[in-house]
Amino acid sequence: xxxxxxxxxxxxxxxxxxxxxxxxxxxxxxxxxxxxxxxxxxxxxxxxxxxxxxxxxxxxxxxxxxxxxxxxxxxxxxxxxxxxxxxxxxxxxxxxxxxxxxxxxxxxxxxxxxxxxxxxxxxxxxxxxxxxxxxxxxxxxxxxxxxxxxxxxxxxxxxxxxxxxxxxxxxxxxxxxxxxxxxxxxxxxxxxxxxxxxxxxxxxxxxxxxxxxxxxxxxxxxxxxxxxxxxxxxxxxxxxxxxxxxxxxxxxxxxxxxxxxxxxxxxxxxxxxxxxxxxxxxxxxxxxxxxxxxxx
Length: 296
Hints:
The chain is an alpha+beta fold and about 300 residues long. It has helices at about 1-10, 35-45, 50-55, 140-145, 155-180, 185-195, 235-240, 270-280, and strands at about 10-15, 15-20, 60-70, 80-85, 90-95, 100, 105-110, 115-120, 130-135, 200, 210-215, 220-225, 245-250, 255, 265-270, 285-290.
């Protein structure tokens, strides 16, 4: 009923007009102002800059071109995928609502809403065929992003402790995997560093992305946790079903990924700056015990 209602009448929410054009059937989630605005807020915090905003200043409205994606999935996988194209910002966002089981762990992987799994620039569709176009007031969207730009949300204390322990585990693993062949003088510095308190900064959680960033200040590294499972689901931390990426800021920062074409082991200076802003300025500072402390 709600989908029919939306198709017949432009939806007025909090003074924001959402006008729609026809397109293939898609999830009602893509019609919701709160969801689309949360996607924009995530882009605002992690991807957009003044050059993007300058392109749309003065626009009356902004368009979201959305469609359901139908990739081939494994048997029993009921996950749903979608794409949100924002032509005015030259951005394409791929989202996923997982729904499958990991049989060997007897684990059900589900999320209540679509989460961002990829953001790309350029190579946008040349027409809206197959998409449904949803338009909203640019001013209202801009004001929402501005007013909520410093809004943060962190895990409860129980989950926060799990994340602290996971960060500690990954840092220890890094030492085991990457410092064995260092020169003796450098090894001595690293061993001394392990005896210090370890300072980390956790980025706020996103409502539309299953990822969390940690800046390990003592080691000058960024750690990215991501998963199909909701990061706030305790089951995730019980099974440790996390994808973890570590980036050495000194060694893995470049101005452009063109310098290291074909490699995903690097971050641009812009990406590093955004991660540091989210971790240090908006994030939560925490102290871990020295890494050589037997009391984990």
